[in-house]
Amino acid sequence: MEPLASRIRPKALEEFVGQEHLVGEGKPLSVAVKQKHLFSFIFWGPPGTGKTTLAKIYAKSLDAKLYELSAVSAGKKDIKDILDEEVNGYSKVLFLDEIHRFNKAQQDFLLPYVERGEITLIGATTENPSFEVIPPLLSRCRVFVLNELSDENMKAIIKRTNLKIDKESEDWLIRMANGDARQAITMLENTNQLYNEITLESLKNTLQSKFLRYDKAGEDHYNTISAFIKSMRASQPDAALYYLARMIVSGEDPKFIARRMVIFASEDIGVAQPTAIVVANDVFRAVETIGLPECTINLAHGVVFLCRAKKDRSAYNALMKAMEDVKRYGNLPIPLKLRNPETKLMKELDYGKGYEKYSQESYLPDELKNRKYL
Questions:
Q1: Which of 176, 198, 232, 356 has minimal CB crowding within 10 Å?
Q2: Per the domain annotation, does 259 fall within a domain?
Q3: Is residue 214 pLDDT above 70, yes or no?
Q4: Strand arrangement, sheet containing 65-70
């Protein structure tokens, strides 16, 4: 039987919930659909926010032949088969889910066909395309950023399932789904099938049951990476290696793990051992160049190193405090002595006047003279 999430999938923009900055009146996708404008683009955003649905709606508006592939399992042959297929004048639109999983060689193969317009590409990714998509391909695609669905969006989507749910259970489900519509719908469907009623207790029982296995786009994905990071933070290599193994066996993207390790090296180790960022970055590069399964050895090596390193979050904490002041006070005037006197007028206005290279006087804006972040 077709999953509930698929059965209630919107068929037109008018039915779509969320992403108003893209689908609202006069917004980019709305205009493209109305004008039947053919172009390649990439959706970047969290899981369950409408990437596949919008791709289907867009392709339908063009009367185009839509092909759906996952970069996890697809290869050059799949692309070639699409190109070779005769479609009697229809445009070919390829929706490539998890485009970040396509390696450089596969993206290079796809590039000329997108460039010549033989195929219109719609990529979807949860990862920053600036890092995961080769520059020539990225330059030929517009990037649309999708946001997590709001609580109101989630309520509207839950209502569309026509499944009875009380307010307490709905509130819990929305918190648990964290803006992921597909996860919420799947939870509702599984709970209804297992218990014939949707209550807070039955929802929680379903969440713990074997019917919801590790989902790289779901809650266990976030719970496991959270446990992994917290184990390294607590300097517990055994626990960190366990969660690393769990992610690897479950099919997690090794680059996702390595990227979080690079972040951890600066956020949690920081100035206590500055070389940690070098090690973490080299692990990431090793994962990129070697790939599975051997790169798991590089990951394990890096994890043990990061666990054993001394920890110091002072740089990270100082940045967070500084950002709070930026948000609170906006762009405060920069002291004149710190401004660059590039022109004669700027010099006349005292730009750079009184500047001393090694002064102990605070260089912060006047409103923050006594502020200490570090």
A1: 356
A2: yes
A3: no
A4: 65-70, 92-97, 120-125, 41-44, 142-145
